[in-house]
Amino acid sequence: MAISGRKSGDDAGVRNAATGGLLLRPGYLDATAQAALLDALRAALADAPLFTPTMPRTGKPFSVRMSNLGPLGWVSDRDGGYRYQATHPETGRPWPAMPEVLLRAWSEIGGYPHPPEACLVNWYAQGTRMGLHQDRDEQDFDAPVVSLSLGDTALFRIGGLKRSDPTRSFRLASGDAMALAGESRLAFHGVDRILPGTSALLPNGGRINLTLRRVTRP
Ligand SMILES: O=C(O)CCC(=O)C(=O)O
Ligand SMILES: [Fe+2]
């Protein structure tokens, strides 16, 4: 397990064995790299607009809006459930390509020898959250999940392999990178809340999270 990062408060909790395989790289992207990535994302989202996924069966809308980059994208709706597909659910077009900086982050942080296939773009407006869940719609759990944060700081929560396992929380700020690998790959996790006014990157606040995943077995 390799852990780096802030040492104060609840952040120290991420060193606990329950989250083995969790890797944090605070400040992985500097301000210039964050701004460049944001520009690339704006262009991509013009082609593949944010959509509102809905829950399997109930059709209840997510509060987080989403889009994707790369050969595959994660989508969810009432009838089809959670899945990956090669095209945007509303435009029917293929997802835009992943910018180079994301491919580099995947290899530098995740250290997995095959390329990522999906980059989920999560848009958190102020007041939105993501409930505790596992990332398990992929065929390949050997590959890590690599995530990058932009904009306002998130209070991120992670537990163990069972929903009822104890959880701990820490902050993910703009430019921070994280990988869920090894024992943490299937750990329950979520976002409790977005802390307003913590970043000037997005003019109207809010947070963007980019989650890179390998979907198929190489
Ligand atoms: O926004 C985050 O930091 C986590 C996102 C997440 O867990 C997911 O997209 O599966
Ligand atoms: Fe997740």
TrEMBL record:
Task: Name the SUPFAM superfamilies on file.
Answer: Clavaminate synthase-like (SSF51197)
UniProt keyword list: Dioxygenase, Iron, Metal-binding, Oxidoreductase
UniProt cofactor(s): Fe(2+)
Q: Which InterPro entries match?
A: Alkb (IPR004574), AlkB-like (IPR027450), AlkB-like_sf (IPR037151), Oxoglu/Fe-dep_dioxygenase_dom (IPR005123)
Q: Is the Lipid biosynthesis keyword given for this protein?
A: no
Q: Which domain of life is it from?
A: Bacteria
Kindly indicate whether the keyword Transmembrane helix belongs to this entry: no
* Pfam families assigned: 2OG-FeII_Oxy_2
Q: What is this protein called?
A: Alpha-ketoglutarate-dependent dioxygenase AlkB
**Species of origin:** Chelatococcus sambhunathii
